[in-house]
Amino acid sequence: MQPLAQAEALLQQWLLGLGPVEAAGWAVLLNLAQVLACVVGGWALQRPWPDRRIAPAPPALTVAEVQTTALTVLGSAAITWLGWWAFCMGWIVVVPTSGPLRAVGDAVGLLLTMDAALYAGHRMAHWGPLFGRVHALHHRYSLVRPLTLFVVHPAEVLGFGGLWLGVLALWQPCWSGMIAYLMLNGIWGTLGHFGMELLPGGPALLTGGRHHADHHRYPHGNFGFYTNLWDRLLGSRLPRPER
What we know:
The protein is mostly helical. Helices cover 65% and strands 0% of the residues.
């Protein structure tokens, strides 16, 4: 664990040494890199398995999608900057990784906690007035592409980002567990928005591509992000429609 501990110490030292303007610049670059990684990664995954598509291909990319994604990058950068500031102030604490069990435990624990929190937030976003004013923007795109993951209303970006910062403040995860969760979050979001299912039949408890693609086409169910556990328990799981 020594090389990992050294890397985490250097990362923490670097973060604490940043100024506010530097931190803002890095926050924008980090979130822009995430968009590019998800879009390129989703595109690369689509090419080897054209027969795995479970929804019609989306229409041509629009200027509105690109503009909304740019706003999402800026909103996510604002959340990242707030997280950095809270970390510097000691309100968010990230601890050194003590071993693989701690890292796996934090990654899985964060995933399950955020799965429940995001299910609740997502279902609330489908409440009539809130849906019309905010979440309907995301559902304009019933045929998804990887970029659709980032085509969301700024209020949702700030709301879900604030939820994440609140969980971090209460959890105090280790560095490796937190970074692993963030990587899984990006992978899951991409798999849910590229209109394909890589696993034949779809995974049993995890959401997969089909789960969220169906939600975009039939938005009255399938609210889960990482698992379909809450959809099963609360009766919001969609039957698989005929294609």
